[in-house]
Amino acid sequence: MDAPFCIHPLLDCFNNPAENLGYQMHAIVLKKLFINQGFYNLFIAIGAIIGLNRLKKSLMAAYALLLLVSFASFGAGVVLAITSNAYFLDLLQAAPAAWAFIRIYPLYKISSTVQ
């Protein structure tokens, strides 16, 4: 079965990026991607805020959320390094997240044995 007509420009984009798309289609695709990225960042930020707030009540839950946020940020930095030449931006994103993960993980292990 052939892909619907509206999908063809997107499939062509993977073979020859940006050259086959008109400005209007390029704007539509980028708008969807940036909205998705914005909500991803919003939910990661909410997880970090909830994790910091939970530090008062349940250390294990707070540390788990903070580990998730730092792991997601580190993973995104690694993907950035693999898929582009933005190594400085990768370092700015991945290094603090890796440092936070390394610092929080022992605290999580201690809190999981206490509770």
Order of helices and strands: HHHH
Overall, the morphology is elongated
User: What kind of sheet is the major sheet?
Assistant: none
* Count of separate DSSP helical elements: 4
In which range does the helix fraction lie?
over 70%
Question: Mean pLDDT across all residues, rounded?
Answer: 79
How large is the radius of gyration? 20 Å
Q: Please identify the structural class as seen in this structure.
A: mainly alpha
List low-confidence stretches: none
Structure description:
With 115 residues, the protein is an all-alpha fold. It has helices at residues 8-15, 23-54, 59-83, 87-114. Helix 2 (23-54) runs antiparallel to helix 3 (59-83) and helix 3 (59-83) runs antiparallel to helix 4. The longest helix has 32 residues, at 23-54.
Short description:
With 115 residues, the chain is an all-alpha fold.
